[in-house]
Amino acid sequence: MGIIDKIKGRIQDRLNDPAFMGLVQEQSLKDLLLRREFRITQDYMQREFLDKAVDDELVEFRLSIEDGYCELSGRLKKRLVPFAIPFSASFTIQGIEFSAARKCVFLKLGPVSPLDLDWLTRKVVQRIPSLSMMGELLVCDLNQVPRLAELFAHRVKGISIWDYITLKELWLKQGELGGRVGVVL
Questions:
Q1: Half-sphere exposure of 104 (CA within 13 A, CB side)
Q2: From the centroid of its chain, how far is CA 45?
Q3: d(CA 61, CA 76)
Q4: Disulfide check for 127: which of 7, 53, 64, 146 has CB 3.0–4.6 Å away?
């Protein structure tokens, strides 16, 4: 009996387990297992990442996901300026690097309004620990996202299963971020 047969047997055992099948009934997990797709809503990202970045200087921070692009907007307060400066920046997905060594999403920064100030852009990017700037690209290091970092660090018998999974595709649709995963053999 080869290793492939053992893996097939274990998968079949899991599919016959009623507790596991109860989990699969949840639509998002079902899509991930059967279609290898996932979706993350705009509300989830707002709650988990952006709401935590608000403080005395960054007084408002909102995310809006549209078809093909995403927009961050808000208001930033500087000590020398008596009012909060509104800002808005859009970006699109430029590329993905999802390997054993690095798990990053590259975002192409679009127009920043009302003024394209480098210090404003840097200040906003610094508020989210998983983001950094590389020229005109925003780099989102998925290993720095708290919940994903825990998931990526999990090992089974010393082997990271994420070394064998890749992110094939990533898209922005109205109100959600979606993607498709694949298996690397």
A1: 17
A2: 8
A3: 9
A4: 53
Q: By C-alpha distance, which of 182, 145, 168, 171 is closest to 70?
A: 171
The residue to which tokens 């109860």 are assigned: 22
Q: Taking the model in full, what pTM does it have? A: 0.70
38-89 pLDDT, tens per residue?
Answer: 888 888 888 877 777 677 777 788 889 999 999 988 887 777 777 888 888 8
Task: Please tell me the distance from the alpha carbon of residue 51 to that of residue 33, in angstroms, as a whole number.
Answer: 30
SS3 100: coil
| Rounded Cα gap, residues 176 and 42, in angstroms | 5
SS3 30: helix
- Cβ proximity of 87 and 123 under 8 Å: no
- Closest Cα partner for 106 from 144, 72, 138? 138
Q: How many CB atoms lie within 10 A of CB 87?
A: 23
Cα separations (Å) of 56 from 86, 126, 178? 14, 14, 32
Taking alpha carbons only, the member of 136, 83, 82, 96 closest to residue 112 is: 136
